[in-house]
Structures are given as C-alpha cells and as structure tokens.
Write a structure and sequence with these properties.
mainly alpha, flat
Length: 96
C-alpha cells in the first residue's frame, strides 16, 4: 500500500461522511455502506485522477463521499418495481 498518508486520511474522511449521512440506519448497515463506498473510492481514484488531471487524494475523497449516492440511486430504482414495469412496457411498445 504505497499511497501517501494524505490519501488514507482523505479516504477516511470520505468514509466518515458516508457514515454520518446514514446515521438513521443501523450500525451494521452504515458499516456496509461505508465499506462499499470506500471500495468505490479506492478502486476508482487512480483512473478518476488521471481523467480529471487532479490528485488521487482529492479523487478518493470525492468518490468515497459521493459514491454512496450511486448506491442509493441504484437501490431506489431497483426497489421501485412500478417504475421498472413502466420502463419495460415503454421499451417493448406497450406504454403510452
């Protein structure tokens, strides 16, 4: 793990932001969401930094802190069965 200390601090801050934003959930749920967000940030930071011309440190914090938004959006879309039905109907030509 040859990342600088600042990278790990930024990753930790991103994880803490995620934990704070989900304070209404159980401790286990917060830990799981934070771990997934941390994984997203850690794994995508090098590519995001290269694409944007910014540092990995900035990329990891932003991706970790806001990666959970993608998780929430995805979960909400999957949970909304009526929306999924409507989209499928429209794609197959059965909708309005």
């Amino acid at each position: 793990m040859s990342k600088p200390l600042e990278f790990w601090i930024a990753l930790s801050v991103g994880v803490l932001i995620v934990i704070e934003r989900h304070r209404e959930k159980s401790a286990i749920a917060r830990a799981i969401i934070a771990a997934i967000s941390g994984g997203i940030g850690y794994s995508l930071a090098p590519e995001a930094a290269a694409l944007t011309g910014r540092s990995e440190t900035m990329a990891v914090m932003i991706l970790t802190a806001f990666g959970y938004l993608l998780l929430d959006l995805g979960a909400a879309l999957i949970a909304d069965r009526e929306l999924i039905r409507d989209v499928i109907k429209r794609r197959l030509g059965g909708g309005k």
